[in-house]
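#structure-requests
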Amino acid sequence: EVQLVESGGGLVQAGGSLTLSCAASGIADADYVIAWFRQAPGKEREGVSCISSSDGSTYYADSVKGRFTISSDNAKNTVYLQMGSLKPEDTAVYYCAAIVSETIVVITDWRRPYEYPYWGQGTQVTVST
C-alpha cells in the first residue's frame, strides 16, 4: 500500500525559504508521479509541481516557477520541494500526492487532483509579511 508523509512546514517570513519532504512507502520498483498541491482557505486545491520517476521530468505552476524546485532521492523514496523567495500568497496547506504503476504511469494533466489516488495528510506553510 502506498503511503505518503509530508514534513517541513512552518512559519517563515516573506522572502525566506522552506524545504518540504514527502516520504513515500510502497513505491519501490514502481513507476510514479509525485506532485505537490496546496490549498489555501476558501480556495481550490492547486497543483504546484510534480516529478516523474521514469525520466525525472519536472513541472511547475507558473506562480512558483523560478522560486520552487522539486527533486527526488530514490534511495530514500523521498520527494522534496525547495521553496524560496516565499510570498504571503504561498500560505497554504501543502499536500503531496502520488500515482503509482507497476508498468508506466499515464497521466492526462498533472495539475488535476483527481489524477492522484494517494495523498498525504498535509503540512501547513505560513508566510508572514
